[in-house]
Design goal:
Strand order of the largest sheet: 1-4-3-2
Helix content: 10-25%
Distance between the termini: 31 Å
Radius of gyration: 15 Å
Strand content: 25-35%
Number of strands: 8
Order of helices and strands: EHEEEHEHEEE
Length: about 130
């Protein structure tokens, strides 16, 4: 059996990054290593995980691209649904995110906005597709 189990974001400060998602999206903290270089948040069956750049570099010997503020975000996004997009976007910005694309209503009725988290990863905040 195969399961999609986790997504790992490579970040400078694991505790700071985890706290942003914990405080903004109310995700419980599953655990963090004593070295504070890896941690996971509970999101259901799939965990949202964080690894320090140094830990990731020790595992990925060929290197990887860093998410940087002066660049456009990677061509990937994390998506969170809510009944109140405006309130959640406001909360995210208050907690350190940057609004990337304001709220828009799609032709199928879904409200969608995009933020960049404090590590410059793209996050979609939207209503459920009806």
């Amino acid at each position: 059996m195969i399961k999609f189990k986790y997504v790992i974001l490579y970040v400078e400060d694991v505790v700071k990054s985890m706290n942003f998602y914990h405080q903004t999206f109310d995700m419980p903290i599953k655990f963090i290593t004593p070295e504070k270089d890896y941690g996971e948040l509970l999101t259901g069956e799939t965990s949202l995980s964080f690894a320090s750049i140094s830990l990731a570099s020790s595992n990925i010997k060929q290197g990887f691209l860093f998410s940087k503020s002066e660049e456009k975000p990677f061509g990937i996004e994390l998506g969170f649904t809510t009944d109140n997009v405006e309130k959640l976007v406001e909360k995210a910005v208050k907690n350190g995110a940057v609004l990337y694309e304001g709220i828009a209503v799609k032709p199928w009725g879904q409200k969608v906005a995009y933020i960049k988290d404090p590590d410059h990863y793209l996050v979609e905040i939207c209503t459920e597709i009806q």
